[in-house]
Design a protein that fits this description.
A 7-stranded mixed sheet has the order 2-10-9-8-5-3-4, sandwiched between helices. Strands 11-12-14 form a 3-stranded antiparallel sheet, with helices on one face. It contains 9 helices and 14 strands. It folds into 2 domains: 243 residues, Type I PLP-dependent aspartate aminotransferase-like (Major domain) (Aspartate Aminotransferase, domain 2); 101 residues, Aspartate Aminotransferase, domain 1, CATH 3.90.1150.10. With 363 residues, the chain is an alpha/beta fold. Helix 2 crosses helix 6 and helix 3 packs across helix 4. 34% of the residues lie in helices and 16% in strands.
Length: 363
């Protein structure tokens, strides 16, 4: 198969076509370099330029203030589940608060608990993670080392419309599945991290944006790779960085900045795409049963169930024949999950919406 399908994978996920085309053109030789990004030293001039441009493009689209550092690390979001507590909590004598709105928040919590005492500020397990806490349900310790939340739960399709209010306690966010999908006020965060493989690039690189003053919290005794201060001091080049990933993230950020016209524009497109699918769910008379409560719905991952397993299997098989791929829901939620990240074309979502309507009519 050489034709591209509409790929609704939750991650690694669809990337912007112009980015793939540029990477393809440059795979044998970067202009003026004569070798590809896969083959050059991370300390030479060409990679330094790629690295600096990636940081600049991210800073431009996200509006990252001067007092923040942008790092490119390996180990995915999962290593950040550990790096956040060991750097930001260890030695402070304080606990950290975790807001658990889905499977990934729960995993982040479990990893942090290996480091020390953690308070659960809210946990949505009792309703199988279909909602967010209201402001008065959040139990924040004003003395916490930080508050951790997951801006978008990829499996349950639950997304914070805005940051929870945590007063002066630094906000730490796993933004793996919605970073770069909308503007966010970076100055409200202490640390944002994201595995790149949904909205930002390929797997193998994680983005870390950290407020500079928090680097002082890192204990000298930490393993060097896991020390934010070491990583910042070496500008992500403490060891060989995930250079191909940095290159692709740079192309994605430039695509957002220069072709899409910024995150406000991207957000508008994303809203329109999500609206199409949620409307199909809401107008199906219960045939499609959305997992998330209406006011907590994700613009990135649309999770819904059909009346039974047989219909679900038929839905997926027939969708695939229409070129609509990777729609299987996660086993903890069941049903269907359509991941509609930045790079999913509007046309792909419209095709899925039309398919949903036609499938229901034929069922
Ligand atoms: N957090 C979220 C919200 C995720 O969606 C994922 C990956 N699906 C992870 C963390 C784990 O990311 P990684 O595989 O990069 O460690």
């Amino acid at each position: 198969m050489s034709e591209r399908v509409f790929n609704f994978s939750a991650g690694p996920a669809v990337l912007p076509l112009p980015v793939l085309e540029q990477a393809q053109r440059e795979l044998l030789a970067l202009p003026g370099v004569g070798a590809s990004v896969l083959e050059i030293s991370h300390r030479g001039k060409p990679f330094t330029k790629i690295h600096n441009e990636a940081k600049q493009a991210l800073a431009d689209v996200l509006g990252v203030p001067e007092n923040y550092r942008i790092l490119f690390l390996q180990g995915g979001a999962r290593l950040q589940f550990s790096m956040a507590p060991v750097n930001l909590m260890r030695g402070t004598g304080r606990s950290a608060d975790y807001v658990v709105t889905g499977s990934w928040g729960k995993k982040a919590l479990e990893e942090a608990q290996r480091e020390g005492a953690i308070r659960v500020a809210w946990d949505g397990k009792s309703t199988n993670y279909d909602r967010l806490p209201t402001a008065d349900q959040l139990d924040i310790d004003a003395d916490a080392a930080y508050v951790h939340f997951t801006s978008n739960e990829t499996i349950q399709g639950v997304q914070f419309p805005a940051e929870p209010d945590t007063g002066d306690v630094p906000l730490v966010c796993d933004a793996s599945s919605d970073i770069l999908s909308r503007p966010i006020p970076i100055e409200r965060y202490g640390l944002i991290y994201a595995g790149a493989q949904k909205n930002a690039g390929p797997s193998g690189v994680a983005l870390v944006i950290i407020r500079e003053d928090l680097l002082n919290r890192s204990d000298d005794g930490l393993p060097s790779y896991m020390n934010y201060q070491t990583q910042a001091k070496h500008d992500s080049l403490y060891n060989t960085p995930p250079s191909f990933g940095v290159y692709i993230v740079g192309l994605v950020a430039k695509w957002l900045r220069d072709e899409i016209g910024g995150l406000e524009k991207m957000n508008q497109v994303n809203r329109g795409k999500a609206e199409m699918l949620y409307q199909a769910i809401d107008e199906s008379g219960g045939f499609y049963d959305g997992h998330a409560q209406a006011d907590c719905r994700s613009l990135m991952n649309v999770a819904f169930r059909l009346p039974d397993d047989e219909l679900t299997a038929r839905f997926r098989a027939e969708a695939e024949r229409e070129g609509l791929h990777a729609l299987k829901g996660h086993r903890s939620v069941g049903g269907i999950r359509a991941s509609i990240y930045n790079a999913m074309p509007v046309e792909g979502v419209a095709r899925l919406r039309d398919f949903m309507v036609a499938f229901q009519a034929s069922a």
